Please model this.
Amino acid sequence: MISRLLNFPSSLNPNLLKVINLVWFQCIWWLLILFQSQAVIGVLLLMAIWLWLTPKVRSDAILILTIMLIGMLVDSTLMTFGVFIFESYANQLVIPFWLVLLWGAYAGTLQHSMSMFEGRPWLCVIAGAIAAPLSYLGGAKLGAVEFGFTTFTTALVLALVWSVIFPLSFIIARRIQQFPQQCVA
Model:
């Protein structure tokens, strides 16, 4: 019984795994946007479940940690320049941890539900410039973040940032997949 449970993820259909990954990300997005810091434990549990399900556990784990660090730097810079305002983090230099986790969840989709963007840099530029500002706008509408500038200016800044971040994420994912096993151990 236990061996069947441990081997369960390897028997998942790859297309079903992509759907699970998409639903997994959406659950995390909503949890973090609606409950922010109160959702951290639940989100960490969901991330652990994903790392159990994924056939790419090594590259997903490294990618998640890498993108979390990059995201922390990017959004902390935007916060420092007043693009984002987090009321309880007014005098902080680093974004809230729940937002860092959201970057990690995003990273968890790169090799799975968003893999259709792999190898399509111009599509990544366009998708990043459109989808990311909409995601942040949704978060602002639900009270997770405030914008320090007009919605148009913030959307323009986010479009520029994410037109670079999104294609860069796939380059990073590809490089991580190419790491020899010895480098990680």
